Amino acid sequence: MTIKLVLCTTPDEKTAQLIASTLVKDKLAACVNIIKGVESVYEWQGQIETDTECQLLIKTNTQNVLQAFDKVSELHPYDVPEWLELNAEASSAYGQWLQTVLQQ
Asked: Exposure of 92 by Cβ count < 10 A (0-12 exposed, 13-18 middle, 19+ buried)?
């Protein structure tokens, strides 16, 4: 079963927890993993920046991914939050669990 796996970084654990818990509570994601201490190197406004961030792994479906993006955009402090949508093949059991959780 195909699901959406979204990558999104946050500047700190507090923001990561807020976004993750809101997405799960609002049934926009079935699960969000928070990986702390990710070092990001990127260009912003002509400068090379290095920051320690939290990486979110957001598991959702195609029906909810746009609403999830809108919610993250509302809660996120960055001008341009990372939002990378990947199609992922889930096991039948995990995919069924995800769909069940999001439909409750």
From this structure: exposed
